[in-house]
Amino acid sequence: MKIWFLVLMFAMGAVMGSFLSCQAWRLRYKEQGKKKLGKRSVCLKCGKQLKWYDNIPIVSWLMLGGKCRACKKPIGASEIVIELLCGLGFLGYGSTIELSNMSALAWVIFGFMVLLILSLGFLAIYDARWRELPQAVLIFAVICAIIIAILKQWSLISIVGFSWGPIFNLMGAVAILGVTYLVLYLLSKGQWVGDGDWILGVALGLALGDSWLALILLFLANFIGLVVMLPKKQKKIAFGPFLVVAFMIVITFADLTIGFLAGKVW
Description:
This protein has helices spanning about 1-30, 60-65, 75-95, 105-130, 135-160, 165-190, 195-210, 210-230, 240-250, 255-260. The protein is mostly helical.
C-alpha cells in the first residue's frame, strides 16, 4: 500500500508541476496585458492547442523529444525539469507519511501541507523565470503555514500537554528564516535577495516549526544557491527556488535529522 501511495504522490507531483507551470505563464500574460492563453494548454511558439496525449507530464516531453508536434520548435528543458522536481518533491514528502498511524488531525495537516507545497512550487517556478514572487500566492502560502503551525502545536499539546518550549522553537524557526532574509534585503537594498524572500522565509519557518531544521534549511538554500549561481557571477539572483528546494529536502529527512541531532541516529 505504501508503494502505491508513493507512486500516486510522484504522479500527482508531476501533474501538478505541469499545471503550475501553465498557470505561471497565464498569470504572467495577464499581468503584462497580453492575449490570454485560453483554458487549454497551447504551444507558446506557434499557439497551437495541445492534444491530451501531448500534455502527459514527463512522458509527452520525452516522446516528442522536447519539441512541439506542430511547429517542431523546442518546448524547453525547464518543463520536464519542473515536472520531475515536483514529482520528486511530492514523493519525498509522501515518504514521511505513515499511513497506518495517521489520525484525522494528521490527515488535515497533510492536506494543508500539500496546499503549501503547491503554492511553494508555483512561487519557485515564477521566481525562477521572472525574479518575482506574486503577492497573492505568498499570502496564501503564509496562511497555509500558519494553519499548519497551529495544528502541529495542537497535536503536540494533546499528546504531552502545554509547554512553552515548542512555541519558542517555532518562533526561533520563523526568526531564523524570516528575519535573516529581511536583514539581508534591507542591508543590500534588494540586491542580494528580493522583498518577498523574507515573507517566504516566514512561511517556511512556520511550516517547519523547529529551529534546528530552520538552520539546516538556511545553510542548504545558501549552499545550493552558491553552487548554482557562482559560475554565472550574478549579483542579484532569484533565491525563492533555492529556499523551496531546500525546504523539500529538509521535510523529507526531518525525522532522520532530528534523530541525529538528538543522538539517536549514528
